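Posted in: Structural Biology > Protein-Ligand Complexes

Title: Requesting predicted complex, nicotinamide-adenine-dinucleotide in pocket

I'd be grateful if someone could produce the 3D structure tokens for the following input. Sequence and ligand are given below.
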Amino acid sequence: MEELTHYIGGEHVKGSSGRFADVFNPATGEVQAKVPLASSDEISQAVEIASKAQIVWGAVNPQRRARVMMKFVDLLNRDMDKLAETLSREHGKTIPDAKGDVQRGLEVVEYCIGAPQLLKGEYTDGAGPGIDMYSMRQALGVTAGITPFNFPAMIPMWMFAPAIACGNAFILKPSERDPSVPLMLAELLEEAGLPKGILQVVNGDKQAVDAILDNQVIQSIGFVGSTPIAEYIYGRGCSNGKRVQCFGGAKNHMIIMPDADMDQAADALVGAGYGAAGERCMAISVAVPVGDETADKLIEKLIPRIEKLKVGPYTAGDDIDYGPVVTAAAKQNILGLVKSGVEQGAELVVDGRNFNLQGYEDGFFVGAHLFDRVTPDMDIYKMEIFGPVLSTVRAASYEEAIGLAMDHEYGNGTAIFTRDGDAARDFAHRINIGMVGINVPIPVPLAYHTFGGWKKSVFGDLNQHGPDAFKFYTRTKTITSRWPSGIKEGGEFNFKAMD
Ligand code: NAD
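-- Reply #1 --
Done. Output follows.
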């Protein structure tokens, strides 16, 4: 069986802790590799290398750093098929989805090519007599990121591309469930010209994360994953004096107004609810039709669309709608929540519990489920399911619908489907959620805007990518300088003033 490595100091390095985790092929349920789980010594070793390498890299001018990013974009495009295949084999998502994963990371790398412009400082000429004032953005030093399983290419790139473009070294601790693509990305970035030691990948679990959190040299930590872990990392990282940003879980509501185009809304819900088996932090997991008539029409349109979904392995071709979930434990958790929904009185109108894929009986496939008449006290409403399960909560009015989304503890994304500009505008203004779609079900901002939720979906101030990333990965220094002038007003030189 393949034994994966760390990527430390520009080399593939075998794990020395003696601890490993299994990496599955979720479509077959087979263990396809084992990944080493780093000890705190291995983290310290990577930090030492990063620290030395960063001194040189931080002094490289931003334009040259940007050229490395330019070349990296070319290499990502060159290796797109290989990256997507590796990603699908470990994650389970379809090949088009895997390419999307790489593509949305690549777009942030493209944004980082603007580093010379984005890192420019500010200057006030003549802030006082003979006084000038200027600010510069300086790299933090050694930075680190801890990433989730569901976007193993995109989220690492969202972190390391701006960190490195700003002149930092970066240590990535990817998800132990799909660690191969992050290792490939580190190799590609070095092929693009990045010096050894600037991007290192250290695989691991809680032990490695805790070593990162407690390391005195690491200046900042980016985290994306579930909310309980986000909260833990934010607390421990901050109390250790680090700059920390953590992005957590979600429960994204889509409100369907009576005037919405029902076919468009149903298509959007199927794509946003079941795409990537619901394993997206921007997936829609709650549909909120306004009025019983809207709800009846919507459910009638949803059922045949959901029943037609093609579930299968990524190898079965591009017409597969979604693949398996990531692990057997994830499957059990999803089915456990479905059971609780039935027990707590929700109506299971599409029942995927007995889904079985011939030839892939050991794979982690989960059939599509649709619940109607879900109420806010049920576990399937309160908890993030992270699977192909859509809950419908019927609201009697627009006010009740917006109130539901506002009262939920998560605040990552949301959407409203309507033809009414007034309702859409009111929704966009009042909602206490970070990313809002108007007739757009998954409103993921593009690379040059920023990405981030509100409420329990985020801990920290700045968002991911866009201009915020360049703030997160730099410190501002402001210099006030005074040069006593020998030049008199009007231009005549006053040598006395120079004494
Ligand atoms: P997870 O929280 O289980 O793991 C994320 C990372 O934390 C991994 O690298 C993992 O090794 C590490 N980790 C896990 N347990 C830990 C512990 N006890 N102590 C320290 N580190 C630990 O999340 P996941 O299952 O990989 O990803 C799915 C979650 O991520 C979902 O909740 C999803 O909503 C969220 N997510 C959020 C965003 C966002 O931008 N808000 C984006 C993608 C995913």
